[in-house]
Amino acid sequence: MRRVARRLGRLAVLAVVVIGLPYFGYVGFAGSERLVHPNRSIWCFTPETEYGWQYEAINYDPADDARLAAEEDDLRDCRARRPPPGDEVVTPDGERIAGWYIPAADGMPPDGPTVVLVHGIGSSMSAMLTRGALLHDRYNLLLLDMRNHGRSTGTHSTMGVREQVDLKAMLDWAEAEKGATRFLLLGSSMGGVTSANVAADDPRVAALVLDSTHATLQNTVETRLLAAGHPVGGAGYLAVWIGAWIRTGENLAGADAVHNVGRLGDRPLLILQGGRDADQGPENAEQLLAAAQAGGVEVELHTCPEGRHAALLESCPDDYRTWLVDFVDRVFGSAAGTP
Question: Which of 18, 61, 252, 257 is the most buried if burial means most Cβ atoms within 10 Å?
Answer without folding.
Answer: 257
